[in-house]
Structure formats: structure tokens, C-alpha cells
Records
---
Amino acid sequence: MRILRFAQDDSNVLRTLGAVGPLIALLATCVFFATRSDRFLTGDNLSIVLQQVMVVGVIAIGQTLIILTAGVDLSCGTVMALGAIVMTKLAAELGVSVPLAIAAGIGVTTLFGFLNGLLVTRINLPPFIVTLGTLNIAFAITQLYSNAQTVTDLPEAMNALGGTFRVGGTSVVHGVVVMLVLYALAAFVLRETASGRHVYAVGNNPEAARLTGIATPRVILAVYALAGVLYGIAALLSVARTGVGDPNAGQTENLDAITAVVLGGTSLFGGRGTVLGSLVGALIVGVFRNGLTLMGVSSVYQILVTGILVILAVATDQLSRRGAR
Amino acid sequence: MAGGDSTALVMEARGLVKRFGHVTALDHSDFELRAAEILAVIGDNGAGKSTLIKALSGALVPDAGEIRLDGRVVHFRTPMDARSAGIETVYQDLAVAPALSIAENLFLGRELRRPGVLGSVFRMLDRKRMREESTAHMRELRIEIGSMGQPVETLSGGQRQGVAVARSAAFARHVVIMDEPTAALGVKQSNTVLDLIRRVRDRGLSVVLISHDMPHVFEIADRIHVARLGKRIAVLNPRKISMSDTVAIMTGALAPDEIAADALA
């Protein structure tokens, strides 16, 4: 009896930890680096962290939606790179107007998201395999279309979101605002609308969702397509930040986006988590990279730390689930 | 409760046939459900009771035969058809989403939106109203749960089943079909759910109860529909027949015409 009660308390503790844990981890990380480097807690440095996080942050919104349905998208970063190549090539080399080029790039990433969704819902393939396939397809198309060359000499308008405005003495990149607005929008839809709650229901208990009349395949298809739209917007941010179309972009984002979502407390088993958690997760990774760089630690250690964090986050999720059963 | 022929039939099926390849799961089966009664459907494995229930709830389409609801012929193609006709089904495997709140589960797929622009343009959910209506509804069914905002996974098995039953009772206009509602539950929790089923009937809904549990069937059923070899072989009055004779009829050890006439309902 005593043991039983203890076990129950344990699971509650873990569940609560799942909700506020990421935020505590982020704060702890910030405190740690603030004591290690005088430069860490400056406005300019924090602005740089946000700027470095904005691309993976936007991708992570799409990734969160997909993981909430108990899926996963390994192709996210690569599809973003394809979108970036399409929009830059159209604008810089084919003389297409900037808005149209951007629309075409987002169109292509949306198409890929839609394709992922179709394969998952119509042919019932596991998302892991589907997106592993589209990861390679998107990568190959990107390399072929760009001849593996970086696209440069972009029209000025293409980089507009890379421009800055000043808040107090700190300059903030427009793209960061775009990211924050998208997070607010996603959080609103997931929390306050029926469609959002259906995403949770589909991931949590697909059978129950179906039996209550929710069109489960339609929800999943919409989520993958919407993720594609977000990858397109991330592509635009990536172009604006770097000023070029890079065919080799997105390689680290593929897994970093999943890392951000998992660190943010969203369950890989679906149905649990929040999109704002993913923002916190992306910031944790960003702060770690930034802080370790400021301390002069080699980037290999940054990767090592990220790996350990991911396993810790997934283990917490797994243990809290075992407690809940 | 077990009235004569004058009792109105809420739902009726005649000559239902369903074949799966060489197997005839339903072989001209009949079915009659009266207003505000609990009708237990029993039968051995392979007797065709789950096929019958699936036909009634729209989960499958029979090859032949007709189903009437309130005297009108209905053709259910999907569970949604049955639901919009006023028939709700509670499934065996506790069909709730554990991570969502009680109120969210009660209104899953039928969410209420806020009035005005917030609801029509911004599609915002009316959480407050859903929570209030959930509370009122659960209180009416005397399901005691603290807060409608707590996730279903924090509830016991009996309470979870209570949520599933309450959801069906809230939206059904004619019939609630319950597939083994007590199968996963302990004794005390089962009793709570049985009480709940009685209250659903007392509110005027008809309940179809599929169960293997004879004591539960005898405790709450008004009539017992016995399925055997794809047919309805008898409808029994649980107050006039013993549990062992019922099981004997169900398994074929006893023919329905061998029992006293007043045991038939």
C-alpha cells in the first residue's frame, strides 16, 4: 500500500515535471552560462540566440503538430532547403518577382508535406519510413536543381525579414517576430479550437477519435500539409538570415527540430505536449550552443550535450507514461 | 417493466443477414427494443451478437433485412449515420482520449463554440459552457468527479467508463448501445456503472446491453435477447427464468419451447 502510493506520487511528480521541466531547464541553463560568461546576459547576445533559433524554431512548430499526432517528420530540414533553393533560384536567376518566388518556394514545401501526409494516411505507411524516403528525395532534388551551387545575388526584398529594428539598445531581427507570432498562432489554434483539440485526440487515442466521428485521416493530412507551409516560411527566414540559397542547409535542422520538440516536453507517443514547449526546447539547444561557444568549448561537446539532453527528455516522458498506466 | 405488445418499439430489425465469405454471421435475425427498457443481448462466441450490434450501430451494413427506428426504415452506412439518428454506442475498450479533460472528452467531435465573432471567425471553443454543461450532466447521472478540467487519465477505470457512458447518454435521443461496459472493471466499479445504466434508462432512453456477465444481466435487464447461430432464438424475462436455464438456452442444451411460456418476454 505504501509502495503503491509512493509510485503514484512519483508519476504525478514526473507529469508535472513534464509541463514545467523544460522552462526550469532553460532558466537553469541561462543562470549557468550567466555565471560563466559576462557576455551571455547582454541584450545583443540574447538577440543573437533568438536569431539563431528562428529557423529551427519555425520548423519545430510543424514538427510539434506532427509529433502530437504520434507521427514524426525526418525530412523537415531538407524540405526547407528545397524551398529555399526554389525561391532563391526563381528570384535571382529566372527573374521571377520576389513575392511570386516566395510563394512558389512555400508551395513546393507544402506539396512535400502533403505528399508525406498522403503516404501516411492513404497507404498507411509508418511516418518514420515515409519521411526518411522524402528526406532523400528532397535532398536529391535540391542538389540536382541547384547543381549543388549556392544561389547568391538575391534581390534586396528577399532578405527583408533579416533586417533589424531596435528595442531599447538591442537590435532584433524581423524574422524573430515572425517566429513568435507563428508560435502564438499555433498555441491558440491547438488550445482554443476544436481542430486543435482533435490533433491531440488523434494522437492520444486514434480509435476513440474515429469513433466520436473525427475524420482522423483528414486531421493527419492537414497537419503534414500545414507543417509543409511552416517549412516554407522557415526557408524564407533562412534565406533572409544568410542572404543566400544554400543547397546544404537544413541538415542539422532535421534532427534539431525533433530535439526541440522532445526537449519541450511533447511526447513522441503523441497526444501530449504544447507548442510553446517546443519554443523553450529550441531555446535550450540555442542557449547551450551559444553559451558553450562563449566559453570556448568545442562544438563537438555541444552535440554531445544535446544528445544527452534528448535522452533525458525522452526517458522522463517514458517513465511518466509508465506511471500513468 | 416487461409490458405486453402494446409497448412501443423504439427500434426493430427484421430478417437481418450478414455473410463473411462462407460464414453466415447473421442468419435472418430479428430484434426488438422497447421504449425505456434495458435489453440485454447475450450469446455464445460466434452467436452473431456483435455482428447484430454492429449492424444496429452502423458499423457494418447487413446484406439483407431491414432496420426501423421509431417505425421508419433506416439505412446506416456509417456509425455517424446511426449517431445522427439518435443512437449512441459505448465501446468496450473505454473509447476516451486519456490526455484530454473530462469536458473535452464529453464534447469530443461535437465541441461548442463561443457565440459571435470569436466562435464563427476565430473558431474559439466555449470552454466555460462545455465545462458547465458537463458538470450539470455528470451531476444528473450522479457521477461524482471533482473537476471537469482534469484529464481522464487521472480517473479510475469505473470513472472513465462513467465518462464514456455519460457522453453517450448526453447525445443519444433514442438508444444507447453498450458493449461490455463492465468487462474491464472491478466489483465496486461495475456496480457504479450498472447504477448509471439504470439511470440512463430512467431518463427515458432505451439501452442495449451486450454482456457476458450473467449476474450483471440478471441484475439490470428488463428483457434478455438470446442470440444463437446467427438468429434470435428467444427473448426471456429475467424475473421468470433462472440463470442456469438461460445459459442452457444460450448454449443449445435447452430448446426455447421446453421452458414455461411465461418465461418468454
---
Amino acid sequence: MDVRLEINGDRVSVHVPPHRTLLDTLRETLGLTGAKRVCDEGTCGACTVLLDGDPVYSCMTLAVACEGKGVRTVEGLSRGAKLHPIQEAFIEHDAFQCGFCTPGQIMSCVALLERVPRPTSEDVLRAVSGNLCRCGAYPNIVAAALSAAKAGSGR
Amino acid sequence: MSIKVVRTKSEFEGTISEETALVDGKDLAAWGADAGLSIVGRRRTRVDGIARVTGRARFTQDVYLPGMLHVRVLRSPYPRARVRRVDASRAEALPGVRAVLHRFNAPQATFRGEETIFRDEVRFVGDEVAAVAADTEETAAAAVRLIEVEYEVLPFVADLEEAMREDATRLDEKDNVTESGRLDRGDVKRAFGDASVVVESTYRTSTQLHNSLETHGAVARWDGDELTVWESTQHVFGVREGLRTALRIPYSDIRVLCDYMGGGFGSKGGAGKYTIIAALFARQLGAPVRCVLTRDEENLAAGNRSATYQTVKIAARGNRIHAIEHLSWSNAGQGRWVADPTGPTNGLYDIPHLRTRSYKVVTSLGALASFRAPGYVEGTFALDQAIDELAERIGEDPLALRRRHIGLRSDPVTGLRYSLKRLAACYDVGEKEIGWGHRKPEGTRGSAPHRRRGYGMASQLWGGSGLPPAYATVHLNPDGTAVLRCGTQDIGTGTRTVLAQIVAEELGLALGDVRVELGDTNSQYAPISAGSLTVASVGPAVRLAAKDARMQLLDAASGLLEVGATELRIERGAVISKGRRTPIGDVLGEVKDFTVIGKGSRFPNPEGVSLKTFGAHFAQVEVDVRTGEVFVEHVVAVHDIGRVINPLTATSQVEGGVIQGLGFALSEERIVDRPTGRVVNGNLEGYKVPTIRDTPKITVKFIDDPDPKANNIGAKGLGEPPIIPLPAAIANAVANAIGVRVRTAPITRQRVLEALSLQ
């Protein structure tokens, strides 16, 4: 089937079988490998992308269900060499170790910050509670999200 | 420079072995207190941070090559069976399927001592039976379901304690149980006789699954005779060795790459069957082939931390620990070794009379793999609880009791003097940070009427000395930038960053002027990134390579500036001569296309010295006595690991170890259905790794006392130490809170409620 999507602001049309997930479409058809396949059943959050602004598990979302929708992935956050404040904050607070869950963590944080520009720690915990990190970067992820909010509000 | 052969005793995950290595040139003395370091020892964000936050970091799973085929594996549904017949005709007929391999058609390929990848007798649920290569992963998965296999089902045993029984099904010609470690000190029998108090307990720990977020996997591509393999691994050279053995091809035809990798925690030590399968298909089909495990496969066939059954008999005489007998049985599954849970008992405390035995038990389950401080987490869970049980019986504060038993200046196992031991300092810092004075022997009231609060602590002992061989080269460009090449890998621990810091410090460059290239067997050899040995093994070689480059640069500058080399030094990217700064680029600029290549190797550890890391964790918990839920409120982790190269990444690593230990302590447990031998929670839904909601307040402290005897950077390892004492500290805090002890990990609500009901 042909599906029209807006990926990080670019309109694309992809030809996919009806059972293909958005995650596999991004990774294999479109070459956007930032979102990761970890559990492939909606428990870990490593595949999180934004669908019309909402964070979704792309492994649990069929590509055909995204017809006409806007998809944002980690690849679309930075503008050239200019990083998004949350990306800056993740580096500054060392909010990752291996980095495999990081794109998903970051997209969950972006969704939060766009909805709640000045989140509390509790807001951050809720936003990323569906994103597992096996290296245990959790304390730094909270610190990064809070500091990015502060940086964002100063702009 | 001249090559010398050195022999050295090296410790890896508790086992000491004799190694032979080649070294080049002369070693350097460790940086002294007056070295004026400006980059090493400082907080630095990761040099590869941008790649990791933008999605640009390319992991093995992100390698998609043109024309690449995908593999899925058919795995045994039985814990033990003979494969009688495989009919792949329906699978082969499926459009898009390129080939099927199984035991009746696969080429011979030796893997871990066996002659074949696909066993005649499959030995656990998840053992490889056949593999399909197809145009898409979906097609390969569909084809796997079309393969018909005739199995002759055989008797099996899938439980540790069942396999230990005399009348258990034997899985080999040998017994299921074999001794794997022993130590005797003093006279235990007599000591128990003249002791004033004896406490005996049984402890159990569950099988923990690594669940690295990136599953094991490889992509293989042949270009003529040359094989390139991308693999998510902790040891590219180990993968190369596995490929050489399986495929019988020379090193020169193999290149293994691992740029970024998504976690290993010990399980990714060498080539897997998936690696060999990918390489075999790629050769047969003339196309690149990707074989990446699914989450379920990862949790069946890619390793685990052995479950243990341990008994500890501990005796006091007056207020001294007089004797310990610690016996431990580990579930190896189909593994050929086990870790030694009695390691901490043998070496951590001053115990005059000791008897320890460690046994390997085979079962019809997937093989174990090293998992962050293998054996030591499990053993410390038993040992440090036993010490608390004894303290309670003799009416002592458990911290005070331990303090009287950490005075040894020599390693009781080898008799060698410790290079440095700051365990007492760890206790002092931890005691203060947690507020140990709030601890009452009977626990205290919690934040609600149904909640009890308790405090607990435990210690850690781990090697972490590092070892040769390890080599590195530093390539200094004419513009004053440098590239470090080394065959080690950054598994998320920050290796790239700390090595860049060492190069920048030694060579007098800015951190941003150093690029680090790791994870490539075309570089010189580096050891496995495991056993807390990376920084202490590779770091000293890197420093020597940078120093060699510096000396060559000074020689070149001497000629170009016409000043004696001894009157020159390098600072922040410039050559300083008689107070005048000339940027390196300007000095070398007139020399066209010249690259200084500095070489460095890891020298042996010093003779006659015991190099160890020490530490202690303190925990404050609350327990809801109605639901049995344990709430960890605060963990203080204090470690003595020599010099801390980068406090930022080191702190992250400790936090990560604490959180992984929390999973072991409270929630992580592989569950096997005994009648069928199947793992029922081999996924992230049923197997509970800690989430951000489970994370307590964590205070990380380092003694940060460089160990000048250890090596030329004064650093020891940190990967394992922060997981070792955490589960025991939690268990002790829970026991303090509720007055009853849970001796099985994980300490689930059910186990807490059971313990309370027996009170």
C-alpha cells in the first residue's frame, strides 16, 4: 500500500505491506535508524517517535494508520550543527551511557516539554516512565529534562 | 623501540592466570600529586555525545547494506531432544527465501568446542535448530514457521535444586554437579566447635537476564576472500577468533567492527552462533546478511546470570568472626563454566577459619554468560547477610562488626600486600552520608503507620587491576590534531571520552582536538571490555602512545625551530620554547604530509602486589508491611578505585550499577515452567527491569586516591564494583526494617509477606 507521511517536515510517500509497523518503515524503508527496535511489543519505549505531536511506540503503530500524519524522529530535532535544548541537556547531564534508548527518551521528553514547558520532576517521571534504560541513566535523564525546560524558557 | 616479552599474573573476574605479552619501549611512572593534571580527573562530557543524542551513532542493528538479506532462527521448543529429521521444503518454496541451514546441510563450523552450529541433540528451549535467510525479516520469520522437524524428546531437568539431587536426570556422562572452586584456611571443624555462636542460613538468588537493549547480532559481508563483520560486542578480537575457528580462515581475511554498541553487561564476549550463521549465509549467497536476535531469543540463548543456592555457616568467638563455611551451587544451564560466588568470602574480611566450595550444576537451560561481577553479586548477597545475621545474634552493630574485620593489609588468598586499600574510608564516608546513626537494631517507624524503615550496608571486593596485552597508537597530524586508534570498544561506559582525556593530557592538546577510533580489529589488540579492566588495561597503553607521539613531536620541533628538544615542551596545542608559543600546526606546517605515529603498550602489573578495588553501599529503605513492597529511599555508594579519570562518567557508571543491582535485589527473576523447561518471561513485559519510577536517591562518592603502584595512570576498574554490594545492602536494610530476613533474591512482595507471616 502507498502511505503519505510527513517525516520531520518532509512529505514522503512510501510503499509498505499493510502489516508493516511505523518503526520498520522508518528504519528499513526510510533509513531513519534513530528509533530502535528493542522489545517490538510496546514495553520499552526505545522506538518512541512523535505522531502529530503525541509520543507513540512506533513498534505498535502500523504505517498505514499514519496516512497524512506528521512524524517526528530524533533525526529531525537538530538543525545542522544546532542541537535541540534537550539534546544539549542530555550531553551536559550525561543522561545516557550506551545511548541505545536515548532517541526514545529524548522524544518522550520533547513531547513533554512542548506540552508542559515548565515541568516538575513528577511530570518528567510520568513522561519517561515508559522508556526503559538498562544502563541506569535515569537520575541524569530527570536532571536533563528539568534543565532543558529551564533553558527553553529562557529563550 | 625494542620489543620485550613479559610474563605477568593477571586477574579477570576473580580468576588469576599467567599471561605472556609483548611490550614495546619503557613504562612511565604514574602521574604524581604534583603532575598538575588539567584534563584527566576533570568532569568532561562525552566526546561522542552528539552522535548518541542525534541518532547518528550507528549501532550494529543500524547497519543496513544494499542487497542485505535477513536471518531468523528456528529454535527448539523442547529442553532436550534429538533432531531426527528436518524438512525445509515448504520454507524454501516461500517466495523471498534464499536458503535454509540446519544440521543436515550446514557446513562444518566449530563453535566453542563443538563441531557444529546446529546440534544433533538440542539441549535447551531456544537451542538453534535451523536458520532461514530471506529478502526481508518478515519473510524469514514466516519461513521459520514452515520448517518441519521431527524431534525425539529426551528426559531433562530445568531446575537448579532438582538437578542437584542424587536421583536427578543426568544430562551428560558426568554428574550434573562438579566442583569449580575451593579454599581452606585454618581449621574450620575445630573453630565451629570452640565458637560461642554459630548461625546457619540458606540463601537463593534467581537467574538474572542481561537484557542489553541492543540484542546480540551481527551483519556479515564478503568481498572475495575478505569477511567484514559488524557485531554488537564487547570484544572485536574475540569475535575475530570465533570466526577464524569456525570458518578456518586467516586473521588477515577478517575484519570485525563495533563502533557503537547498545549494552553488553558481560554477555557479549565473542562470536555467537548468529555471527557464524550470518557469515555462512553471506558466503553461500554472495550477499550481505544480517542476523539480529529478537528480545525473546536474547533471553533464551544469549546468556544469563546463574541462579544460586548457597549455604553459609558463620561463627563468632566473643565479638570476632571466627569461622565461615560457605557452599555455593550455580546453575550453569548448558554453560561450560560458572562464576565463583565464594570469591568475596575468600578475600573480603579477616576470617581465620574458612572453608568454601563452589559447584557448577548443569541444567537443560541456556548457558550462563558473565553478568557484571559474575558470582560476586550473588556471593555478597549471602556473605554480607550472614555477617548481619551474626551481628544481630551477638548484639553488635553490623557496621562496627565489619570494621573490626577489614584491617588486613595483605590479600588473604594470595598473601600479597595490597597496593592500596581504602575500605575503612569508604565506611566512614558512607556512614555519614546515609545517617547510620538513625539506625536502630529493631528498625524504626516509617513515613506511615504501616511502613517500617531500616538501614543496611554491605562491602565490595573486586579485582579491576587491568592486564596486558593492550596496545594503542596515536596519530598526530601536521595541523596539531590527533587520532587515537585502539582495538578496545566503548560499550557505553565512556571509554572514548576517558581515553581522549588521557591523550589530550599527555600530548598537551585540547580535548576537542583528539578523535578516538575504537572497535576495529584492523587496530592493535585490546582486551575484552569486561571485568572492569578497560581503563586500567588500555589507559596506560594510550598514555604511552601519546607520550611517544609527544617525544617525536619534540624531536621534530627541535629540528624545525633549531632549539634543543630538552628546552621544549607542549602545552595546549602549542610548542613552548623559551617562553614563546608556536602552535603545533605552525611548527609542523612546513613539513608536508607527515603524521607522527606514537605507539604504546600495556606493561605488566607489578610483582608481589595485590591490586584490588574496595567499596561499600549503604541503603535506607521502607517496607510496607501490608503489601510487602520495598521502597528504596536512599542509596549511598562509596568506592575506592584509584584515580577517577572523569568524575562525570564515573558517577553515571555507579548510578547504573546501583540501578541494575536494584533489579537483582527486588524485581528481576527469570521464571521457568518446570514441566516444559520453557522460560515464561523472556521479554520486557514479564521480566521486570527497573524503571525510572523505581530509582531511589543515589549519592555517589569516590575516595579518588590514585594508586601509583597499579599502573602509569593510577586508575583501577569501576564497571563491576557498583553492582556488587547493592543487593546485600538492600536485603540487610529490609531485615532491619521488618525484623525478619528474606534470604531469596529478588525480594518480591510475595517473599516479604511470606517472611512476615512466618514471624
